[in-house]
Structure formats: structure tokens, C-alpha cells
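Table S7 (text form). Paired inputs.
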Amino acid sequence: MVTIKIAEKAGDFAENKDIARELRLKEITPAYKDTVGEVVLDFAGVSGATQSFIHALLSQLIREFGDQIFTRIIFKNCNEAIQQLINIVADYMAES
């Protein structure tokens, strides 16, 4: 299992899509490809996020690996607003 702490890069309010892209490219995707187990995205300390941040964080992973990413990528310490954004992005990508 690999844990990636979102607040360490994104801060209290995750809004910078360039940071999300960097997290995806440098940490999440390599961990997903190289780890047999779960990849935990820990949102502890993140009070909110923009939809564009979550989209930049996840959309390419969904394109590349499909919906099965959600069986191995675990979202931890998400408040309700962040969880809703994750669901919106997942639903949007499923439709496209």
C-alpha cells in the first residue's frame, strides 16, 4: 500500500490543477502501476477542492485504466464536498 498525502502538495484548499497534474504524473500513476495493493489518496488537512483540481488528478487515470482504478485507489479523509467532486468527475468520465 502506498499513501499519498494531498495536503502536503495542494495545501488546505486544493485548487491548482498544475499541482494536481504533477501529483498524478509523479506520484499517483507510478504508484498505481508499480504497487500491487492499494494506493491511498489521503485528503487529511484539505478542507475543499475545485472540480478542475479533482479532474486533473483523476481523469487521465480513468482514461488510461478505466473504472477499475476505483478498486485500488482509496480516498481517505475526504469531506462530503470533496467526495461529491470525486463522484462528479467519475460520472463525467464514465459518460465520455
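Next pair, protein 2 of 2.
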Amino acid sequence: MKLRIRGNSLRLRLGPSEVARLATAGRIEEAVAFGPGQPLVYALEASGDATEPRASFADNVLLVRLPRAAVETWARTEQVGIAGEQPLGGDVSQGTLRLLVEKDFECLDRAPEEGEEAFPHPLRGSACAPPNPS
């Protein structure tokens, strides 16, 4: 699972086995260590209680919860992602947090990274896609 944070947006990209695991187990997580006792855990959870994507951060854990039905549909179809926006408080001036969870497609313009798992790119082999670099 890849995590990208930019401004008020979170983007999580999952390979095929991670999408399958999320759909069956209901949760996946990874961690980055910044030193002893200083991990940043980021997790994705399919929840029957969630009605839309929501993120929270507590005790060094960034948790993104998605509606279980949306995850199940996403996992078994060609749907690329699940998106949502989360208000950042009662004051409209605080804005929103944009959330995007998507399937991680192989890059068209470079060789895949060693050991990296990705979905086949939908444009691979089309007239508008560059040739496979491998």
C-alpha cells in the first residue's frame, strides 16, 4: 500500500493482493518507523458502519475507513477508486480533506520497480500508450 499526503489530501494506492485482502479481511495496514517507539501506522478499513470515506489520526495511527459495500464493489469490478471529502470542522473556512483510495496501476513510461505488485494498466497495448520499457 502506498500513501501520498499532499496538502489536505490523502491518497492510498493498493496492489491486487491488498485490494483482495481488504475485501476479505476488512483491514490492511503498514507502518513507517521514525526511530524506536516512533512508528507511523497507516491503515485502511472496510466498515459496515461507514457511509462514506473518513480519516482519523490518533496514537500514531492514520486510519481511513470506507463503506464495506463500496469496498466489495470496488474489489470485484473495474472501478479504479473510491473518493470522498471530509469536512475539517464546523467552520467552512477550515476546508475539507480529500480522500482517494485507488488501485495501483503499472506505469506505462518506465519499467516496474522490483517486487512491486500492480494492476495491469488499462491503456497497455493501446495506440495512445507508450511501448512497454521491459
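The two ends are 23 Å apart (CA to CA).
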